[in-house]
Design a protein that fits this description.
- With 235 residues, the chain is an alpha/beta fold.
- It has a 7-stranded parallel β-sheet with strand order 3-2-1-4-5-6-7, sandwiched between helices.
- It is globular.
- The two termini are 21 Å apart.
């Protein structure tokens, strides 16, 4: 399948590393101009220079002025594809979890998606075309000890996806979520061999996923070939 996103502009949050970086690279390879957004201007500017068909955007998605920053971006260009990828963890057993850890994770993983998406969807509605792709997690479906805050944020993002899909589908805008399992990143690479082997045993394909496994799924959901898929969670 040849996916051509030429002429489209995509905003990817959390683009400086890991899954977000791979998503930015694969969208650009498919012809989209990618706005690579993250807190570190140095990281996203370096990535944008490597990709070529991209622009680095310094963006703190939890900042009080995040809506103003997105509105300013939209004055410069339309955003056709939004990938809400940025997220954090702050793990602890529930009984010991500090309120600050709860608030930080919910604000980063869920509240930011609300603020950013609302601004961008306003223009998508006028354009009558758009793709919103939210990166959730299997933890939001299954739960995980020590991650009540993270699991709650990712489960809520799935509800966000399904409800918004019903609201704006008539305007030719699709809203989908991807729920990655264990993906090979710097964090999982640091796990002891025994821990990695135990994880692998639980996976049907007997390997950890790659960041490109997620990125190519994003590219598909952003394409015309996926125009009749909305409100789904790709697990």
């Amino acid at each position: 399948m040849n996916i051509d996103l030429t002429g489209k502009t995509a905003l990817v949050t959390g683009a400086s590393r890991g899954i977000g970086e791979s998503i930015a690279r694969r969208l650009a390879e498919s012809g989209a101009h990618v706005l690579c957004a993250a807190r570190s201007a140095e990281s996203v500017n370096k990535l944008a220079a490597e990709i070529g068909n991209a622009t680095g955007v310094e963006l703190d998605i939890t900042a009080p002025d995040v809506r103003d920053r997105i509105a300013a971006l939209l004055k410069e260009r339309s955003i056709d594809i939004l990938v809400n990828n940025a997220g954090v963890t702050d793990d602890d057993l529930f009984i010991r979890m500090k309120p600050e850890a709860w608030t930080k994770v919910i604000q980063t993983n869920l509240d930011s998606a609300f603020h950013i998406t609302q601004e961008i969807v306003k223009k998508m509605l006028r354009a009558r075309w758009g793709r919103v792709i939210n990166i959730s997690s299997v933890v939001g479906l299954m739960g995980n000890p020590g991650q009540v805050n993270y699991a709650s944020s990712k489960a809520a993002l799935i509800g966000f996806t399904k409800a918004l899909a019903l609201e704006i589908g008539s305007r030719n805008i699709t809203v989908n979520a991807i729920a990655p399992g264990y993906i090979s990143t710097a964090m999982t690479d640091a796990l002891p061999t025994e821990a990695r082997e135990k994880l692998t045993e639980r996976i049907a394909l007997k390997r950890l996923g790659t960041t490109d496994d997620i990125a190519y799924s994003v590219v598909f959901l952003a394409s015309e070939q996926a125009s009749y898929i909305t409100g789904t969670v790709l697990n």
